[in-house]
Design a protein that fits this description.
10 helices; alpha/beta; globular; Spore Coat Polysaccharide Biosynthesis Protein SpsA, Chain A; 284 residues; two-stranded antiparallel sheet
Length: 284
Amino acid sequence: MISNTAYPVLLLCGSDPNRRNLMKVLDPEGLLPSKALLPMAGKRVLDWQLDAMIESPDISDIYLIGLSPDEFPSDLDLKYIQYERNSSILEKIKYGSLILQKAYPDLDHIIVCSGDAPGVTTSSINQFFDIFRQNLDGDFLIGVVPEDITLKFFPNHRRVIGKFKDLSVYPGEMYIFRHKIIPIIEDEILQMTLKRRQFDRQKDTSKLVPVLKYLGRKPRLWLLIIKYGLGLLSISELESILSRVYNLKMKSIIIPDPGFGMDLDLPEDYESITEYIKMTKVQA
């Protein structure tokens, strides 16, 4: 049974169905099965993230899905979920949910984290869990990072920004689903994952056109789209509208830490995040 103070985390590793430009540039010969294994400041990308996670009292076990013990040998007590490396994020979440429900039948939620966020810190992880505990009735909780703090360290970050009336944010690298809602919003998880990659982030980091076009298929979300387009939508209103339309409780967890939201998505991310790691973790 899970303790009252710690939770297991599903860490998404492996690769995407189609090899991204990031790995074509940084691993042209295709020697690495995952970007989590790229060398960075004397360690592997995933090592930096695991260092922060194992220090958190809020995490009981870490489950890696998409990598085997042979591909990612570690002295840490990690749990490996054998699954197709090149499966989609949705497929990894669904399978990981099944595994964790069997291992922790009393746990209603699954905590998911991408495996390419080496800048995440223990303090930010702890803050994420603190807010989660205040919202245990939530069905879908997503960490978001304010853009203004990120610009201080990553002025050319090219993340896709949601510009709301009260705050401009972008998605962080940890989120939570109640197990039972995953089948209900399965298409939404898949579409949001795919649409997120359709943005031309170099030309426009503020418009959410691909996502809004998808949401526009539901007439009950038109008010959300109109208010967002006019710059009148707040984050709390977004949560309220989505919660009503999908009949679930959504909550944004604001984490003021740029490392919480900077993943390796573009080739230029590697250099900027490496410098960030050297500044915040190596020198610290």
